[in-house]
Design goal:
mainly beta; 4-stranded antiparallel sheet; disordered N terminus; Methylamine Dehydrogenase, Chain H; 2 domains; 1 helix; disordered C terminus; globular
Length: 272
C-alpha cells in the first residue's frame, strides 16, 4: 500500500493547525506546488518510497519479475544507482551506520554508500513496512502476519526483539524521543510503542471515524497524528498524539486498487 504523499500530509497539517490554533506561526503564503518532475518509468509496481534526508538519496523499491531497489539523487532526481533482485515493499537507512535495509524475506541489509549488499537477516512473518528510529538506531520491520514487529539493531544487523501489536501494522512514525506510533490496519487503532523498553503502551481507538488503515504521519512539534483510512470513504483522522483524543477528520482522495506503476517522482515545496 502506497503511503500518502508528504505534500498532502504537510498541507493538511498546516491547514488544520492554523484553524485549530495549534500553530503559533503563520503558514507561508501561497499554495504548495510541484517544483520538479522526473520521468523514471521501468517495470514493477511500488509501495513505500523513502527519502534519506541526510544522505540526500531517494529510494524507490520496485516489484515485478525484474524487481530492484532504485536510487535517485534527492536534490536533482537523477539516477544514483540500484540494487538488483531486491523486491520489497519498503526500504530505510540508518544515518549513523549508513546501513540500509529492505523488507525482503530474509531481510536485506546493504551499504547506503556503495549500494552493496552486506548480508541477509532471517525474520519471521511477511515483512512490508519499515522504519529506522533515530532515537536508538533500531530498525522496525512491520509484518501483517505475526510477529507484527521485528526490531533490528541497525549497526549490527541483528534481531533484538519481536512484538505482537494485536493486529496487522501498516505504517509507523517516530517522534525521535522514544515513542513510535503504528497504524494498525485491520483494527482501526494506533499502537503506541516505547522504543527504549520495546513494549506496547497504548492503543488509540479511531474505529468510530474510519476502518482499513493505511498511512500515518506525525507533526512532532505539535504532537498531532494524521492517520489515513479507506472506509467508509477515504479519510484522515487527526489525533492528539499524547492522549489519543480525536481532534477532527478530513476527506482525502482515493486510488484504484491493483497494480501500480511509478511514472513520476515529485519533489514538493517542503523539500527534504
Amino acid at each position: 500500500m502506497r503511503p500518502i504523499s508528504l505534500v498532502v500530509v504537510l498541507a493538511a497539517s498546516l491547514m488544520m493547525l492554523a484553524s485549530l490554533g495549534l500553530s503559533q506561526e503563520a503558514p507561508t503564503a501561497g499554495s504548495y506546488k510541484v517544483l520538479k518532475t522526473a520521468k523514471v518509468g521501468g517495470e514493477g509496481g511500488y509501495d513505500y518510497i523513502f527519502a534519506d534526508v541526510e544522505g540526500r538519496r531517494l529510494y524507490i523499491p520496485r516489484g515485478g519479475a525484474t524487481g530492484q531497489l532504485t536510487v535517485f539523487d534527492l536534490d536533482t532526481l537523477e539516477p544514483s544507482g540500484s540494487i538488483a533482485d531486491v523486491r520489497s515493499g519498503g526500504a530505510t537507512v540508518d544515518p549513523k551506520s549508513h546501513h540500509g535495509f529492505s523488507t525482503t524475506k530474509p531481510l536485506t541489509m546493504w551499504d547506503a554508500t556503495t549500494l552493496k549488499v552486506i548480508k541477509t537477516i532471517d525474520v519471521d512473518g511477511r515483512p512490508d513496512g519499515i522504519l529506522c528510529d533515530p532515537y536508538n538506531a533500531r530498525v522496525w520491520v512491520l509484518s501483517h502476519q505475526p510477529p507484527h514487529v521485528t526490531v533490528i539493531d541497525a549497526a549490527e544487523g541483528a534481531v533484538v526483539k519481536t512484538l505482537d501489536l494485536g493486529g496487522a501494522p501498516e505504517q509507523a512514525v517516530s517522534d525521535g524521543k522514544g515513542t513510535i506510533y503504528v497504524n494498525i490496519a485491520d483494527k482501526a487503532n494506533i499502537a503506541v510503542l516505547d522504543a527504549k523498553n520495546l513494549t506496547v503502551t497504548a492503543h488509540y481507538d479511531v474505529s468510530s471515524k474510519g476502518t482499513g488503515g493505511s498511512g500515518l504521519a506525525l507533526d512532532a512539534k505539535n504532537h498531532v497524528l494524521f492517520a489515513y483510512y479507506r472506509q467508509p470513504s477515504p479519510t484522515v483522522v487527526i489525533v492528539n498524539a499524547d492522549n489519543g483524543n480525536i481532534i477532527t477528520t478530513l476527506p482525502t482522495g482515493s486510488h484504484k486498487r491493483g497494480r501500480r506503476r511509478l511514472d513520476d517522482v515529485h519533489q514538493g515545496k517542503q523539500s527534504h
